[in-house]
Amino acid sequence: MHGPASPGWLLVALCAATGAYCLLRMRSSVEEQRRAAGGEALMGFGMAAMAVPAAVLAPPGWVWAAYAVVFGAAGLRALWAARSGRHHLHHVVGAAAMVYMAVVMAASPAHGHVHGASGTPVLTGALLLYFTGYVLLTGVRLIPVVAVAVAVAGGGPGAPPVPGGGAGAAGRAAAGWGDRPELARACRLSMAIAMLAMLLPL
After folding, report:
1. Which of 25, 61, 118, 190 has the most CB atoms within 10 Å of its CB?
2. 168: helix, coil or strand?
3. Phi, psi (5° rounding) for residue 100?
4. What is the mean pLDDT of residues 191-201?
5. CA-wise closest residue to 29 among 176, 135, 186
6. What distance in Å separates the CA atoms of residue 82 and residue 94, rounded to the nearest whole number?
7. Of 81, 80, 82, 120, which Cα lies nearest the Cα of 100?
8. What is the dihedral of CA 191, 194, 195, 198, to 10 degrees?
């Protein structure tokens, strides 16, 4: 985060696009989907702001304290929601990683310059290990979901029936594009990759 300009802007674009898509997912008719999408939108835009190159914007120290408070509250909310679903635990880890990075940046003499930031090696390593595993596992899980979606869209032989609707397009329309699991997983996968890129310099 706040490293060289080109990789920094790529991270900003990736995280902002993911956050914008999560905002669109909040239009889902499923309440659980809306709640998850709202937390992921906050994470995406927060990561985008944190990744802005320091040459463009070097935030004052109080900004990092604000980050810690906002994402600390988001982590507590996700922890409370985890009572009804273990998938919320990933949001807890993501919020904790944001709080950790904010604390590290606030404590660094450069206040946002990556070369002046130094985190705790054990915590950084644990977070890197977690997000690396998450990226690999989510990528593997995403492959069969995408394959099924393509088969349904093509309506070819062996295409599974779509509950509540006829063939292909009608079934997807009934399910709602914001509720499609492969899109939600791809969204989380892109943010996990961005998180890895932001944690590595620490």
Report:
1. 25
2. helix
3. -60, -45
4. 93
5. 176
6. 13
7. 120
8. -160
* pLDDT tens, position by position, 62-89: 899 999 999 999 999 999 988 887 878 9
Cα dist from 64 to 19, 98, 107, 190, whole Å: 20, 10, 9, 23
Q: CA angle at residue 119 from 115 to 121, to 5 degrees? A: 120
Query: What is the distance between the alpha carbons of residues 101 and 43, in angstroms, rounded to a whole number?
Result: 13
Residue 114: what pLDDT? 46
If one counts every other C-beta atom within 10 angstroms of the C-beta of residue 90, the result is 21
**What pLDDT, on the 0 to 100 scale, is given for residue 110?**
57
Structure tokens at 63: 């900004």
Alpha carbon distance 18, 163 (integer Å): 28
Amino acid at 74: A
Q: Is the pTM of this model over 0.85?
A: no
Q: Residue 36 has which token pair?
A: 């998850």
How far apart CA 81 and CA 188 sit, in angstroms, is: 17
